[in-house]
Specification:
The protein is of the alpha/beta class and 465 residues long. It folds into two domains: 277 residues, Phosphoglycerate mutase-like (Rossmann fold), CATH 3.40.50; 107 residues, no CATH class. 39% of the residues lie in helices and 11% in strands. The protein has 18 helices and eight strands. Strands 1, 2, 3, 4, 5, 6, 7 and 8 form an eight-stranded mixed sheet that branches. Strand 5 and strand 6 form a beta hairpin. The N and C termini lie far apart (75 Å). Keywords: Disulfide bond, Glycoprotein, Hydrolase.
Length: 465
């Protein structure tokens, strides 16, 4: 009998990944669909994007090199917010205080269960323990960037790190910077210039949190109707999961609200402990329902809100301007790092046209399994959007988009090196979408407040407090 692997060897040898994994079970199995982190609705630990298999490194045939990098990242893994924390504590206390005949089934762990938030002062802060530590995640991200783009940093020069003023964001930016300087405290103290942008309306357009400065945005939630039904309104999967748990672990009398709280409890406990018995107790079907609830909510209220393009336009305009100027006109600074919240990354992705792959609104009646828009793929904790400016041998400039370590070609422009988009074409497409509108006008920014983003250019003497 012919050994198929042997007969294919001459061909497999030209495929580095395949030739390194000749074990049949290794390269014929995919674990993405059963990876719980892909279904945590953006509340759980960082997970790489699925992508399209495009190599992160450019090949010799691309005839282009990276000469500028602009990154926009979400803070790292964190504890729940104060409001979510109340809900998690409620369900914890309900189950702990319930007297049952026997601790059995999926909820048998409740007998020895301990709440993972030891002090309320930790709420909303970065986690700093376990394999999913938010601070460690950002530190490692900084190290990776330094390793990958070391030739773009001029040793011994000040480098700014821009952060929205939320403490978890500031802590993430600082941890990233320490990683970038490879743990050298002296270099960090001397060369890292942390620039903190207040999350206040008075910042106008000179901000990393444009939603705070846009009055009309907060007046409209984005939903097509408050009479939405099915999966969004009642969450039938929640009732089904409650029934399953009540049958297998009788006595706790879980409601659909309890199930939702437990589904939320799981990813936040992962952020802190690195493991969670709550996660093990719940079904994958329930997590898929949670994921879709989160996707629907954030699609309408953030990602595809009528004002989202305006909110993201501030960041994209600044990004394109930096790339059009290039390091040669920016004191040789080729690296730009900014840190904010998940919603701000969604605004950015919208204005960048990455979300154009989602060609229709998400259904509020049933799960749309064919959707592109998945919060866990796009904005998990520690999410990062990296834009590379590529200089081709003919002098043309291109932009390549990397979302969570996966190259994402822009839907309407990807014929450049490494599936990048010509910088001039990207500017044209961006301006075409804006139709002459400006953030300051559409968001009714008061004349006394900044009308445009300037901190990338005036950071050396900027005053933002």
């Amino acid at each position: 009998m012919v050994n198929i692997l042997t007969s294919l060897a001459p061909y497999l040898s030209i495929l580095p990944f395949v030739s390194q994994h000749n074990n049949k079970e290794t390269w014929q199995q995919s674990h993405d669909q059963t990876n719980l982190l892909k279904h945590c609705g953006g509340m759980g630990p960082y997970v790489q994007g699925t992508g399209y298999g495009i190599p992160l490194s450019l090949t010799d045939t691309d005839a282009a090199k990276v000469d500028q990098v602009i990154a926009f990242a979400r803070h790292g893994e964190r504890y729940p917010t104060s409001s979510v924390g109340l809900d998690l504590k409620r369900v914890f206390e309900k189950l702990k205080n319930t007297k049952v005949d026997a601790y059995q089934g999926p909820l048998s762990f409740v007998r020895d269960w301990e709440y993972f938030v030891s002090d309320d002062s930790l709420l909303e802060m970065e986690t700093n323990s376990s394999r999913f530590s938010g601070l460690l995640d950002m530190y490692n991200f900084g190290q990776t960037v330094r390793s990958q783009y070391s030739d773009l940093y001029k040793n011994g020069t000040k480098l700014p790190f821009f952060a929205a003023s939320g403490q978890r964001v500031v802590d993430s930016a600082e941890s990233f910077a320490k990683g970038f300087f490879l743990g050298d405290e002296k270099e960090f103290e001397e060369y890292a210039a942390l620039q903190i942008l207040p999350e206040k309306r008075r910042q106008g357009a000179n901000t990393l949190t444009t939603g705070r400065s846009c009055a009309p945005y907060s007046k409209y939630d984005g939903f097509p109707s408050r009479k939405t039904s099915g999966i969004f309104k009642s969450g039938p999967f929640l009732k089904k999961e409650a029934q399953r748990l009540n049958e297998l672990s009788p006595g706790f009398d879980l409601t659909k609200e309890d199930v939702y709280a437990l589904l939320t409890y799981c990813p936040f406990e992962l952020n802190y402990r690195g493991y969670s018995e709550v996660c093990n107790a719940l079904s994958m079907e329930a997590f898929m329902g949670l994921e879709y609830l989160r996707d629907v909510e954030l699609w309408y209220t953030k990602a595809n809100h009528p004002y989202t393009l305006m909110l993201g336009s501030v960041y994209i305009n600044a990004t394109l301007s930096l790339m059009e100027q290039g390091p040669e006109n920016l004191d040789d600074q080729a690296l730009w790092f900014s840190f904010s919240h998940d919603t701000d990354l969604l605004y950015y992705l919208n204005a960048l046209t990455v979300l154009d792959y989602q060609t229709k609104d998400l259904s509020t009646k049933h799960i749309d399994f064919g959707r592109f828009f998945k919060v866990s793929e796009l904005i998990p904790m520690g999410a990062r959007i990296v834009l590379e400016r590529l200089s081709a041998s003919d002098g043309e400039k291109y932009v390549r988009v990397i979302v969570n370590d996966a190259v994402i070609p822009l839907a309407h422009c990807h014929d450049g090196p490494g599936f990048s988009c010509n910088l001039k074409q990207l500017r044209f497409l961006f301006e075409k979408r804006l139709k002459g509108k400006t953030y300051a006008e559409e968001c009714e920014v008061k004349a006394k407040h900044p009308q445009y983003l300037s901190f990338y250019w005036d950071w050396k003497d900027g005053r933002y407090e």
